[in-house]
Amino acid sequence: MIRPTLLALLLVPVAASGCGGGDDGDDATVLTVSAAASLTDAFEAYGEDLAGEQRFSFAGSDELAAQIRQGARPDVFASANTTYPEELAAAGLVESSVTFARNRLVIAVSADSGIGSLADLAQPDLDLVSAAEGVPVGDYTSELLGRLPDDEADAILANVRSEESDVKGVIGKVAQGAADAGFVYSSDIAASADEVREVPIPARLEPEVAYGIAVVSHAPNPEGAREFVDRLLEGAGAEALTAAGFLPPPK
Q1: Strand order in 54-59's β-sheet?
Q2: Could you give phi then psi for residue 250, rounded to 5 degrees?
Q3: 28-41 pLDDT, tens per residue?
Q4: Range of the domain at 148
Q5: Are 97 and 120 in the same domain?
């Protein structure tokens, strides 16, 4: 059983961050959304078109899923993969999940970097940054490296200096010059275009990057949650995703 003090700590990220109006609203009318860090810009832009108060909590999808397993109850959970929503749905913690967007795994490098291909990451003495295992972008990276010859994959892994808790940590280190390159999403490049540029991954090696979303079971605001999800598929939310560099979901 989770002690009340621990449960309160788990709920802090959801209640403390957000858009529009602070923390004094009725939980039945405030919309609380836990979302993958890569969705920050798109969801904040989407929130500007929504009526009422929203609270957004952005972090690694694995961390947010763990909070829900431990008792946190946001209204909506949006993940940078489809695995976590499906697992939570199987456990009865969220309703059926839907795929609402796609993305592309790419390499982020500084604007003036000489790195021009995936193969360049195997050069000795590079400083690479990735995301940790369990973070969707980290798992997509592992999937990519698993498709390479062992010697090339091993050389790239030998250059990894740190593993971050979410994709914002990865691109932040590249943008600040603390790393030569990192594995991120194409949408993250669009959000940091002044500091970094994209090096594409060969299409034959690209993992399928899909985002899943679900209304949380016993959500305080289920009506608002379902409307939020619906408009991500068609409406202001879908438009915000496109503007932020996301791809539409599979048809």
Answers
A1: 54-59, 31-36, 76-79, 209-215, 98-103
A2: -60, 145
A3: 689 999 999 999 99
A4: 105-205
A5: no
Contact between 72 and 11 under an 8 Å Cβ cutoff? The reply is yes
CA distance 32 to 180: 36
Give the three-state DSSP class for 162: strand
On whether residue 249 sits in a domain, the answer given is no
- In total, how many domains does the chain have? 2
Q: pLDDT for 88-130, tens place per residue?
A: 999 999 999 999 999 999 999 998 999 999 999 999 999 999 9
HSE-CB for 90 with a 13 A CA cutoff: 7
Here the contacts of 147-153 (C-beta below 8 Å, separation 24 or greater) are: 147/205, 148/118, 148/205, 152/119, 152/122
* 3-class DSSP assignment, residue 37: helix
pLDDT in tens, 174-196: 999 999 999 999 999 988 878 89
Q: Are residues 36 and 153 in the same domain?
A: no
Helix (H, G, I), strand (E, B) or coil at 76: strand
Tell me which DSSP letter residue 249 carries: P
In a shared domain, residues 72 and 187: no
Evaluate whether 201 touches 144 at the Cβ level (below 8 Å). yes
The pTM of the full predicted model, rounded to 2 decimals, is 0.88
**CATH assignment at residue 163:** 3.40.190.10
Look at residue 160 and give its three-state secondary structure.
strand
Residue 251 inside a domain? The answer is: no
Same-domain check for residues 94 and 52: yes
